[in-house]
Amino acid sequence: MSARPGTVRPGGRTARVRTAVLRAAGDILAEHGFAHLDLADVARRAGVGKTTVYRRWGSVTGLVTDLLAELAHDAAPHRETGSLPGDLRAYALLVQREAADARQGALLRAVVAAAPCDGRTAAALRRFFEVRVEEWVPCVEQGVARGELPAGTDAAAVVRAVSAPLHQELLTTGVAPAPHAAECAARAAYAAAVAGAYAGAAPVTGR
């Protein structure tokens, strides 16, 4: 049984072919959107045989799945600053820089637009975001251990709270958020976490 695209990182010529194909696919997505992503066109841009692309990826969704896996793998590792506000700020600015990147911002918008119409693309996109969140969860967990946040804080929810408004701005306006927006997102997520917003279910109150 063959491995899912993106789960094995090959070496040698296979690695060079994969790199060229994923670069070509990303360029087409960023320039023209998901609807114009065609395996034959990708093969031409990458300078490889069409048969190679069809045999390895099989379909457009297989290629996009691998592309998202590669983007998640290559994302900058989490940065520990010694305080949770500093860590959240570092993450927010990373998301902002990625959104402001002409290629990656456009690529993300294209995949998000396609996801509701294709289950496999939607699953790959979810996994992309999961990997990004998992990378930064230890920063929040360390903040809990230092007593900066209440015990029982959902670390993943805090990380998502930082990036969500930035991705929302990119996807709904088509304009990348500014660094100031990243600063605001980090401060808002931290303030909510300190207040206990992510520390378990809210208590049920009587009427």
TrEMBL record:
Keywords: DNA-binding, Transcription, Transcription regulation. Residues 15-75 form the HTH tetR-type domain. Residues 38-57 bind DNA. This is TetR/AcrR family transcriptional regulator.
